[in-house]
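Example record

One chain of 269 residues, shown exactly as stored in the release files.
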Amino acid sequence: MRRTADRVATAERAARAGASVANEFFRTGIDVETKAGKTDVVTQADRDAQDRVIDVIREMFPGEPVVGEEGDELKSVPESGPAWIVDPIDGTANYVRGIQTWGTSVATVLDGETIAAANVFPALDDVYVADERETRLNDDPVRVSTRRDPETFTVVPTTWWPRDRRAEYGAAFRGIVETFGDARRYGCSQASLSMVASGQVEGVISNQRTNPWDTVAGVHMIRLAGGRVTNLEGERWRPTDSGLVASNDRAHETVLAAAREVAQRSTGD
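Predicted structure tokens for this chain:
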């Protein structure tokens, strides 16, 4: 097993390489395809960027499994051994509209626990990297927000609700604006989670089961930056959980309650 420092360096190098490929196509009028729905889009840039990321990983770690959004890669995180988790373009819906909030995410896990992660947002000129000790933004260590009063919090509903569950989306925003100071929706889960880690926003909520490529890297960054990430039961979040609640840990129970309200709306309780 190579040392952790090699994995950190590879995660960052792979994320930068994939982001560079995607950035070459950004705002060039690239053809857009749809997958599961009209707003679930993919481009050739997604595929090419993922190929580049995997090439970089396999130069250093040949044979290790890859969990990736595109193609035939694994779709869930192995419970044992090492693995890599890749999202070539997180925020593709932003990407195809020319909106700058999108990025390439790479994380590496060992026995299901994250040990290194990198989120690169080339159009924003921001690079987040986390090892086993700290999270850095553009080489400077970052911490979560120190705000304690929920009425000063900015909270983000992340992931997108299918059309037949849009009432939950409305419930999420209603719960946020009634409890917290402000709401944002960035259309990029890794960007939202990274912003919690760097103290730009105080919380992220979802009542859905999220994809590992949308979440694992950012969750690791929040934890190392002093924040907290749980499932809807308030237990330590894992990629197989339904619901994700992230906060700066100053008022986590309040953020958790907002996420639970959305979940109750979905079940009609």
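Notes: The two ends are 49 Å apart (CA to CA).
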